[in-house]
Amino acid sequence: MSAASLELSAVRVRSALLERFHTAGVLGLADVHTAEALGRMVRERDERVLLAAALTVRALRNGSVCLDLTTASDVALAEDEAVPAGGVATDPALGLEALEWPEPAGWLEACRESPLVAGADAPPAERPLRLAGTLLYLERYWQQEESVRTQLEARTQGSPPGVDDAALFRDLDRLFPPSAALHGEPDHQREAAESSARRRVTVLAGGPGTGKTTTVARLLALLNAQPGPAPRVALAAPTGKAAARLAEAVREAAARLPEQDRARLGALDASTVHRLLGWRPGSKSRFRHDAANPLPHDVVVVDEMSMVSLTLMARLLEAVRPDARLVLVGDPDQLSSVEAGAVLADITGTANASVVRLTHNWRFEGTIAQLADAVRTGDADRAVALLTSGATDVTLAPLDAGAGLGAGAPGLDELAQRLSASADDARRAAAAGDAAAALRAVEAHRLLCAHRRGPYGVNRWNLEVEQWLARTLPGYAADGEFYLGRPLLVTANDKDLDLWNGDTGVVTRTDAGLRAAFARAERPLLYPPARLDAVSTVHAMTVHKAQGSQFAAVTLVLPPPESPLLTRELLYTAVSRATTRVLLLGSEDAVRQAVSRPANRASGLRQRMG
Ligand SMILES: Nc1ncnc2c1ncn2[C@@H]1O[C@H](COP(=O)(O)OP(=O)(O)OP(=O)(O)O)[C@@H](O)[C@H]1O
């Protein structure tokens, strides 16, 4: 008997209901085991409660902070592509359609009565689960949500920071002069800057090119120009890559400021949020800086907030001094964090005075911006019209799942040509020892997938591209595991090397030997390959991992319309990674399906803050 079926038989003895949900492919073994372990703690025998607990654990894996018991059956397959070992029945009678879900009112009642579940008003940490209305939480996540909500409220409703009004108005007029390009629209950049001076929390939300970084540089100049000592400023982002981009972009924007502001701003650097908070070895979620030992900074700016999970947000708010100014920057329409939570989308979804949305696009005039906008606003007809308009910067081409590179299909041919050009340029630059050029070459084009596994997944495409390049570029990847120009993806955080899950790099030659180079604002980080613990080759990556990065050209492999991963946020995030060219490989139906399906992450934050 295999290990999986042994484990399954152990499950079978205990809960037939959980086993049914496992066989149908809804629950993984880990979900079942966690729920049963919880059940044993208090001798809970009601299978419906155990099912609710297992589904709550599963929901977390898929990014939801909690489970809404009234809609649990609708979202059974949402977002997840993981097929649990031994799960997913081939017999339709055992499949998803045939599952019998508990009747919601009785299910809620059973949970309410269970010794496993605390009520919304119960003191903290009494029981492992908590039911707030129809939302069931693991206690830890309920507490984190509560902590984020109360801390944000305390900061937005507490006494405002002191401001010299005369200086503020003078500098607002100076730094945000009226712009004819706004055609009479309100200047939200100025509004955001004023908010950052007058409030302890400002949320600066906007899509690519709406001037978020420009505004950050100017609002820092504004705060610096206030009378008194210059504020201590921290800039941070969730990944090393995003932090490097932030530092570079803020410096560029600062360079366009008047001399007096530039001088006062001084050197600006950015770090990852983990590094800012003081990562502690052996602890996944605790940091050196917390409420008892807060950060010394007067102004903390965090970019790419859509990637920040609920857990990290709770820690961040604990660590920022209550009297400091916090500026949260990001694009709430992008995919949410890999870990549970949709904090930025939740905060910007409430009628909160501290949220300022930038709407004017200053950068893109081409079709990419229009496509991103059509996707973001759920306009499938417009998205398809743009994709089929013959525009040179956006195209939709069909993809036959069985066809590979070199098959002679127009979309695949363009993809193959871009892959070859980027690999060849990277290899040449790496051989010449030009790390920065090699990094630029691997970022010239990126192949993105929604899935990890299967015919539309990263695993297949990575292999396919590697084989294609080896076939068509003589000598490609022939010089060992760390071959020159090999594109790298960091797959686990390594605080000692300042490398973070999702960072990308390239293998290059240096005077000291082969090095893995990773983009940073000043100059690339260079490490001997032997020092890298967790890297893989990245010819293709998931859209999730591409957040915080930008590429000249992006090709997205669209899964079939029925894929649960095909959401509006996924398509928007993929399209908005590109600056000059978007190629979608897939069907019009897949595009329509994506545009019309917003991701549905359960969290109670929006409701509780509303
Ligand atoms: N008020 C403005 N007037 C003129 N140009 C502007 C203004 N705001 C931004 N820009 C220009 O628009 C471009 C995009 O701005 P910026 O990089 O700040 O946007 P962003 O929202 O940070 O973009 P991304 O998220 O893609 O990095 C830059 O070239 C910037 O100089």
From TrEMBL:
Pfam families: AAA_30, RecD_N, UvrD_C_2. Residues 184-197 have a biased composition (Basic and acidic residues). It comes from the Bacteria. ATP binds at residues 206-213. GO terms for biological process: double-strand break repair via homologous recombination. Its EC number is 5.6.2.3. The keyword ATP-binding applies. Residues 178-199 are annotated as: Disordered. Signal peptide: none annotated. InterPro entries: AAA+_ATPase, Coronavir_polyprotein_1ab, P-loop_NTPase, RecD, RecD_N, RecD_N_sf, UvrD-like_helicase_C. Keywords: ATP-binding, DNA damage, DNA repair, DNA-binding, Exonuclease, Helicase, Hydrolase, Isomerase, Nuclease, Nucleotide-binding. It catalyses: ATP + H2O = ADP + phosphate + H(+). GO terms for cellular component: exodeoxyribonuclease V complex. Residues 198-488 form the AAA+ ATPase domain. GO terms for molecular function: 5'-3' DNA helicase activity; ATP binding; ATP hydrolysis activity; DNA binding; exodeoxyribonuclease V activity; single-stranded DNA helicase activity. The keyword DNA-binding applies. Belongs to the RecD family. Heterotrimer of RecB, RecC and RecD. All subunits contribute to DNA-binding. NCBIfam families: recD. HAMAP family: RecD. A helicase/nuclease that prepares dsDNA breaks (DSB) for recombinational DNA repair. Binds to DSBs and unwinds DNA via a highly rapid and processive ATP-dependent bidirectional helicase activity. Unwinds dsDNA until it encounters a Chi (crossover hotspot instigator) sequence from the 3' direction. Cuts ssDNA a few nucleotides 3' to the Chi site. The properties and activities of the enzyme are changed at Chi. The Chi-altered holoenzyme produces a long 3'-ssDNA overhang and facilitates RecA-binding to the ssDNA for homologous DNA recombination and repair. In the RecBCD complex, RecB has a slow 3'-5' helicase, an exonuclease activity and loads RecA onto ssDNA, RecD has a fast 5'-3' helicase activity, while RecC stimulates the ATPase and processivity of the RecB helicase and contributes to recognition of the Chi site. This is RecBCD enzyme subunit RecD. It comes from Microlunatus sagamiharensis. The gene is recD.
